[in-house]
Structure of Quinoprotein glucose dehydrogenase:
Amino acid sequence: MLLLNFQYVIPNHKNVKAAWERASLTITTAKTRWLVAAIFVLSAPTQSAPPHAGWPAYGATAGGTHFSRASQITPENVAQLEQVWEHRSGDVREAVRDPENFVMQSSLQVTPILVEDTLYYCSPFNNVFALDARTGEQRWRFEADVDIDSEQVFTNCRGVSSWQSGKTGYCEHRIVVGTLDARLIALDAGTGERCTDFGNNGEVDTSEGQAEHHPREFGITSPPAILGDKIITGSYVLDNLRTDAPGGVVHAYDARTGERAWAWNPVPPGMPQRREDGTWVTGTTNVWSILSVDEERNLVFLPTGNTQPDYYGGHRDGLDYYSSSVIALNGDTGEVVWHYQLVHHDVWDYDAPAQPTLVDLTIDGESVPAVIQVSKMGMTFALHRETGEPLWPVEERPVPQQGVPGETLAATQPFPTHIPYTLTPPFTADDAWGMMIWDESACRDKISAMRNEGAYTPPSLEGSVNFPSNAGGNNWGSPAIHPDSGVMVVYTNRVPGSTRLIPREQCDEVVQQQAGTPYCVETSMVTSPLGVPCSEPPWGTLDGIDIVAGKRIWSVPLGTTRNMAPFPFWFLKGLPGLAAPMMTASGLVFSGISNDHNLRAFSLATGEELWKGALPTAANALPMTYQLEEGGRQYVVIAAGGHWSGGSPPGDHLIAFALPESGSAQ
């Protein structure tokens, strides 16, 4: 196939504690020990100044702008970038294709955070690392002891978070990581040791109160949010297994003690969050992607997934009230302040996959606090951060009806009117494309044989065309937004998908069982016999959009088929996959993609590709950048670890690029 379907007393002085312990063995009098301690304290380095341009949270800011003020690397000198260091965790897993024991390859989707002069990141196995931000040298490693072999179908960790008390001392700065087996672990940032006053020996079990489930069904893959002294986390829930899957509870914990401050299970208003036996109501929508917080307004913003399972909802009876939505919670209580639903009664897996991006927009001369939410439909919703009201009109338009027996579809769906869509249905048999005439003809026949009524064609027994596919449109890579100009850059997947429901009596060999419903389901990309998408390239683009003006300013293909297809089929541009752009104040956009072995830099003004850096495998993670001192060296860091959706092999490469030191002032 051509294409695959896809306690240190003094921070930053690591030898003080060890030296003090050695000295203590030979010093016996209290007076002398006090004197030696004072010498250590006075001679130790003071706390480092904050970076000139840092990256303290997964998305650069607590509101996920993916934007940095770092400006040493510019459109004029970016072509000089070179690799300056690489860190290898050793945490790699190859795919196992045995039907009796199928596991996916590991995928390094992490974006490090920078605090002072240290980078922190997690591996797909949830092990945590601290690195020297200048050299990539490892300062410590923490082993999370996740049983990846027997319990986890896939392995993933998108990032860690940082909490600081404002004091100095052991565990006054904590690195927090969520695990695939649903634990939340707090570590001392200086040593990597557990903060034993947090929960039970440094960890809490977020699965507490869940109904009985297999461990692989419930865990944490995205970094928790930090709001004041609270650590807030959602969870992933394995899709399409059963209606009574674990509930998608969002938890807030005290950052010091690990005690639960509040929990919110997304049941409809007025419905109890727990069942009679005290366990959480099952099957509720979860929050698997990245949360945002607004400290000034004390709000937590959630992008919600689907109510279980994804492709049939005849049993839900209102349980999907908060499904596929943006939700604002009160940070103190977990109470809903407002919510806005992007897809009504979602039976397409069109959940809200991206981090809600918080940015202030200048509209009619006034600064407006906004939440920008991109979606799998390629639509962008701009909402007022305090009320959830759309900043520009959104129309409720009729959509196709007549689903399978037992299903009740939403009569309308919301369509934003101001910000242009990054792709537009319908995708019809007339749009079929192939490498050759017979290939194109096969695509046309495949599309013609399925139900296809444009956007929101419901799942059917004969199979339905879904454009976009359940991968999007836009996905968890989320947009980068310039906080001054309001220009947004987002990756768009442009490959059609298909959904076919299968009556229960025929479901023995089907993977996606949707137990508890009358149907199991098969989903796939719409591809030719060669494995090539049936849509015309580009299959993936970076799109630049002026949000306030409501216009697209450029769209460029991202990636080539060189690493996915044999020669001479290297010429196709614009790959399907997953990608996450990052933006700098100097006018650059950086992005990798899950099926191409390169990191690229583009002009923010025009979309022109300005530089390409080769990688050992694909990089679908969000890149990050930082400058430790004003006028100092700027680093761009990317995780290259492949992805299970395409042909890129697994890896464990965290790679930093920078300008040559001799050319740093150019």
User: Anything to note?
Assistant: The longest strand covers residues 366-374.
